Amino acid sequence: MFPATDVIPVDSMPCQRGVADIRTLPGHKPRLLATWLVIATAALLAGCASTQPATMPGSAAAPVAAQWHAPLPHGGQLGDLSRWWAQFDDPLMLRLIEAGQQVSPTVAQAAARIADAQAARVAQSAALLPSLDASVSASRGRPDLDTPVGTETSASLQLGWELDLFGAGRAAADAARARLESSQAGWHDARVSVAAEIATTYVELRACEALVRQAEIDTQSRVQTAQVTRLAADKGFRPPAEAELANASAAQGNVTLIQQRTQCELLIKALTALASQDEAPLRRELATTTGRLPQPAKLTVTAMPAEVLAQRPDIIAAANDVLAASADSDQARAQRWPRITLAGSIGTTRIASGGISTNGSVWSIGPVTVTLPLFDGGTRRANAEAARARYEAATTVYAARLREAIRDVEEALVTLDSTAKRSEDAAIAAEGFERSYQAIEASYHAGTASLFELEDARRSMVAAQSAVIGLQRERIAAWIRLYRALGGDWPTTGHKEHEDE
């Protein structure tokens, strides 16, 4: 469904003709050889560069759906995702997300991978340039009995350059550049993942607190009912079985309350660890809005999948992995062709011996070394085939990431649509069951309803109220999944955000 366009390999035939042209240049005198070689090489490099197409992955030929199949929230209006978390009415959640990103080991490791990739890119780019080394030496001695003591000093510059005739060096530089882009995308993906994890934990905690509040009210009601029933049973107005049932119901309510509180405690521990916060101050901040779920503003998404998927860091990383694998394949093929290296040096030397000193400049051009691979037992061919296989695997991964991205967005949209449709009915149900419970409770105290009816009405009311809280949690979680599916706050102007930081 998502085919990837094949990367067109560099045509090495013009480069081969260039080598032949060098051999037929007029004037094979040694003093002109280096000059002609440099001129011909420059022209040859320009020719080879012009024949190499831009290696683009299958994004252009990997069509995605023209529109979402799932209903879009709020009509699919365009929205800005860069300030996603600021659109929630909960500054504490935003602060915890920012704190968690700063201390996350995943983000730190991703930043370290950027540094490694940057170093590799610099090294591969530098390999295309000539190398220049300076050396200084001094010696004093008497080499034999007939020679007076003498001193020799020298200073020189050594130049070396491997001509990248067949593009192996350029391919390596391209691969390193693509891997740098991929590592930068990985850094953003790590930030998005950490933000989504902290936000999800925070929402779970707030929903848990809301359920604790409901459990407290329910447990208190059960205890009061048990007390009233016990008094009525002691006076003979209620059978003892009802008193036992009421006590059992109160005990069960207390079990549920303790269990819910324990879950909240675990979520606080998790949030403390994720955001690297002191637990006592965090508890005080959480207590100011206990049980209140963060409500997002009317967040919106674009109606075109290709536009929103373009900002997903994992998609960008997969695309750059394809570019890197393509460049690796080019490099492996180019290494099967001859290599040409130039060398030269220039320096000054002074020799002083027996009161006589001699000084002057020394220089050399060459040697010009041509390394022609003749036999390696098939190593280079095998490396080229392996690189090609890695490229094909990278294109498959890229296409799979596209399909996965569309699935993630579609699932989040389906959940948002479902929660929106259920919200009104859930609220009506919770309100109706609460009124029914209040009526049956009044009838029970008047002696016209049984405890079984009261407990049944209580269970229905608690279940409906819990469903409302669960529905709110599910809807906010769907927004968070959509944030994750759309790539979070991936900057549209490139990767300068991380470079500035």
What does this structure look like?
- With 501 residues, the protein is α+β, with helices and mostly antiparallel strands.
- It has a single domain (13-128, 164-338, 373-500), classed as Outer membrane efflux proteins (OEP), CATH 1.20.1600.10.
- Helix content is 63%, strand content 11%.
- It is built from 12 helices and 5 strands.
- The chain has helices at 13-23, 30-51, 91-103, 105-127, 168-234, 240-275, 279-287, 305-309, 313-334, 379-446, 451-485, 496-500, and strands spanning 131-141, 150-163, 339-353, 356-365, 369-371.
- Strands 1, 2, 3, 4 and 5 form a 5-stranded antiparallel beta sheet that branches.
- Helix 1 (13-23) runs antiparallel to helix 2 (30-51), helix 3 crosses helix 5 and helix 4 (105-127) packs antiparallel against helix 5.
- The longest helix has 68 residues, at 379-446.
- Mean pLDDT is 79; it is low at 1-64, 74-82 and 490-501.
- It is found in: Cell outer membrane.
- It is a lipid-anchor.
- Keywords: Lipoprotein, Membrane, Palmitate, Transmembrane, Transmembrane beta strand.
